[in-house]
Design goal:
With 171 residues, the protein is mainly α. It contains 8 helices and no strands.
Length: 171
């Protein structure tokens, strides 16, 4: 009987100590799987994988960033905004996350918040803001005069004179 109890205690201890390793292995495999699904355009299938990752590993900046992207592709702009705001708390993903959160605010019709975050993204000097000109998620913001101010100075200098005057009037 003692031997059985000892063996059971050993097995329980082995399971308890192995569980975090198994969870880490599962989580490590989840990100490549999610990336494959994203590359295949299967955003609805990638979302639950990333949601599991972010629930199990809140400090995973890349997972939060990808979750924001996936939710945006699924037109869940509020969910994308939440994920991007979380991703913005991490230094490596901050510039892109601020940019993406700004675009999601735009999709939600909250232009002041959108431009506040987009200006912060620009201020990092770690992001090519010219991409906003071709970004379809920026469409709700294009008619706002603040939009032109997001471009680097060299780009503003290449604008037609009437648009340059508009930018100068806003400054």
């Amino acid at each position: 009987m003692r031997r059985l109890l000892s063996w059971m205690a050993f097995c329980c201890a082995a399971v308890i100590t192995a569980a975090p390793v198994a969870a880490q292995t599962d989580t490590a495999a989840t990100l490549p799987n999610a990336l494959r699904l994203i590359q295949a355009g299967k955003f609805a299938a990638a979302a639950p994988l990333l949601e599991t990752m972010t629930a199990g590993q809140p400090p995973n900046a890349r997972a939060w960033s990808l979750l924001g992207y996936v939710r945006g592709q699924l037109k869940d702009y509020a969910g994308a905004l939440d994920a991007n705001l979380t991703a913005a708390t991490f230094i490596p993903t901050r510039p892109a996350a601020l940019y993406n959160a700004g675009l999601m605010y735009g999709q939600l019709g909250r232009k002041d918040s959108a431009f506040a975050l987009l200006e912060r993204a620009k201020a990092t000097n770690r992001l090519d803001m010219t991409q906003i000109g071709a970004d379809p998620d920026a469409a709700p913001l294009r008619d706002d005069p603040r939009f032109a101010l997001l471009f680097p100075t060299a780009v503003v200098g290449s604008l037609p004179p009437d648009q340059i005057q508009l930018v100068l009037d806003m400054a």
